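TICKET: design request
STATUS: open
ATTACHED STRUCTURE:
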């Protein structure tokens, strides 16, 4: 180094007296931002002979307390043994060594130490001292670790559709890196919550999954997941001790009883995708780490929640799509089967007639029977294909209505009459009509289609009973028809899917009742096109089903309330 600046500096230093130089260096030692520690290499175990104020600030140890001791005191069971080996090798080889090592302050909290250890030699080449320079890089390291944590969790969520497993993995990595406690609650089907992951820091500083009993979510809680799921808002409670929420105090009490730890800070963020609240993530710190959660933690968790919610939503969409494809495939096979039966019978009878015609003799009776079968099979085919056409029109929103003013009650009566006259079915049909005007604006043929479908359904799904009960009433500007059968009923929640295309109640399949599963979907489409509603009620399997249909009326009738409703009882 022979630059003019350097030379000038060297000259200046040489010009200084030894005392001034020492004073200058002492000043640098005292005011340096990095910790400086000097050890005596001539003694065994390299005891500390001096430290500067920055060392005291970083480690929390007073100078007087560390003199004569080894810097080993800064290590804990969490310090990486490989880093210690590296230092040991450097000291033995008397060379400069640099490591990043996890140390512990006097109060037990961890800190990342970017450490440089340099040997000091006397003019005769004798090793006399080591000087250690410490830089506290905890903040940088924590930021890096958090970024890596987010990236790792995103990767895990991205590669697997099993988001529950990925969340359990995330919970294990989050403790103690992010907080002392990490919980994941997902909204479950019955509007409750399902705790899919729970991890908390153990005494040794590791993480333990699912070892936090009694911290259950009470829907009315005014903290944590219950609140986030209810309101869709995040909540950061910096100091649990200063918070007045009784439910939070309850959780803090439980934690203290179970682990002896005090709950310090608490943070919950909702999991929201496409405006739907899917659950919540909660983290908390305890007296174990002594940390207070801050806005930075809130932002980290909100970032994590966005990724988690998106992954859950994607997995759910994928599952729904797969189920829809499966339902469609199932439908295609049922449809093919249903269409093949009449086609085969038309083909069979046509061939038989051709053979007879070739022989020149067609007995009149056989000709009649064959033509009747061909006729009824063609009817069946027409019905199936028009159902398929209706489904496609409903799905495309292109179902035309030829509306006119009709008497809904009269329509119901005429459909019942036709149904009874068809003699295909043996059920007796009872109809009770409450007084009122049943004038509606509707497409008579489409209403006929709905009523026929509901009656056929009631008959089909109550093979072991002989009665179907219908009641009609008006009120609230609506005509209301109820069709009650005493048949196989619906399983719990079974009313949900039956109005979807290609879906049938699970117990309908069990009873091996034929059908494409399109009738009720078409009914719903038709009734909704008329501005009405259709729904089903059942007390359970084997307890019958009641279908209700409402359509806006043109007249005004009494209110649809309990006093005017017709009780549906079998006499
Ligand atoms: C000058 C000097 C400073 C040191 N500073 C630290 C330190 O800040 N943190 C640490 O974990 N180890 C530090 N060490 C290392 C330990 O004192 C010790 O040498 C290391 O643990 C390996 O030795 P051992 O196997 O006897 O424990 C320092 C060593 C010297 C010589």
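STATUS: resolved
RESOLUTION: sequence designed for all positions
ATTACHED SEQUENCE:
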């Amino acid at each position: 180094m022979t630059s003019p600046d350097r030379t000038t500096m060297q000259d200046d230093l040489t010009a200084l007296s030894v005392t001034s130089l020492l004073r200058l260096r002492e000043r640098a030692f005292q005011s340096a931002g990095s910790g400086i520690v000097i050890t005596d290499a001539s003694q065994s175990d390299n005891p500390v002979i001096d430290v500067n104020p920055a060392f005291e600030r970083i480690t929390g140890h007073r100078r007087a307390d560390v003199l004569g001791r080894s810097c080993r005191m800064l290590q804990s069971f969490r310090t990486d043994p490989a880093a210690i080996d590296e230092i040991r090798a450097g000291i033995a080889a008397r060379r400069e060594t640099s490591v990043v090592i996890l140390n512990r302050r006097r109060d037990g909290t961890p800190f990342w130490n970017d450490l440089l250890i340099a040997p000091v030699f006397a003019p005769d080449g004798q090793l006399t001292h080591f000087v250690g320079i410490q830089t506290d890089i905890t903040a940088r390291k924590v930021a890096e670790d958090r970024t890596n944590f987010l990236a790792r969790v995103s990767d895990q969520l991205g590669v697997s559709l099993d988001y529950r497993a990925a969340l359990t993995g995330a919970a294990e990595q989050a403790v103690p890196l992010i907080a002392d406690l990490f919980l994941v609650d997902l909204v479950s089907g019955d509007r409750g919550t399902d705790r899919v992951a729970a991890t908390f820091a153990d005494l040794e500083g590791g993480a333990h999954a699912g070892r936090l009993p009694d911290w259950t979510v009470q829907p009315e809680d005014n903290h944590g997941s219950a609140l986030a799921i209810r309101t869709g808002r995040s909540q950061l409670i910096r100091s649990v001790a200063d918070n007045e929420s009784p439910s939070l105090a309850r959780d803090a009490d439980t934690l203290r009883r179970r682990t002896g730890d005090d709950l310090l800070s608490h943070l919950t963020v909702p999991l929201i995708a496409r405006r739907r609240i899917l659950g919540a993530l909660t983290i908390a710190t305890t007296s174990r780490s002594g940390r207070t959660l801050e806005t930075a933690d809130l932002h980290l968790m909100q970032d994590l929640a966005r990724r988690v919610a998106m992954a859950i939503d994607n997995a759910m969409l994928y599952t729904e799509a797969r189920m829809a494809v499966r339902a469609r495939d199932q439908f295609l096979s049922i449809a093919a089967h249903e269409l093949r039966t009449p086609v085969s019978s038309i083909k069979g009878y046509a061939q038989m007639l051709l053979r007879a015609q070739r022989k020149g003799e067609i007995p009149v009776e056989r000709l009649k029977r064959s033509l009747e079968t061909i006729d009824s099979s063609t009817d069946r085919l027409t019905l199936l294909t028009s159902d398929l056409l209706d489904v496609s029109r409903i799905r495309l929103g292109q179902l035309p209505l030829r509306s006119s003013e009709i008497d809904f009650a009269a329509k119901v009566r005429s459909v019942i009459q036709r149904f009874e006259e068809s003699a295909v079915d043996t059920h007796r049909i009872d109809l009770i009509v409450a007084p009122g005007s049943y004038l509606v604006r509707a497409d008579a043929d489409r209403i006929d289609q709905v009523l026929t479908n509901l009656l056929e359904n009631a008959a089909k799904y109550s093979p072991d009973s002989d009665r179907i009960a219908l009641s009609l009433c008006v009120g609230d500007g609506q005509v209301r028809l109820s069709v009650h059968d005493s048949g196989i009923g619906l399983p719990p929640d079974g009313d949900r899917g039956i109005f979807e295309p290609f879906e049938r109640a699970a117990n309908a399949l069990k009873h091996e009742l034929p059908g494409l599963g399109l009738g009720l979907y078409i009914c719903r489409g038709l009734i909704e096109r008329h501005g009405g509603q259709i729904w089903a009620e059942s007390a359970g399997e084997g307890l019958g089903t009641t279908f209700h249909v409402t359509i806006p009326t043109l007249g005004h009738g009494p209110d649809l309330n309990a006093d005017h409703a017709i009780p549906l009882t079998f006499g």
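CLOSING REMARK: The pocket of flavin mononucleotide is lined by residues 37, 39, 46, 70-72, 74-75, 84, 87-88, 91, 101, 103, 113, 115, 117, 130-132, 134 (CB under 6 Å). The chain has 15 helices and 18 strands.
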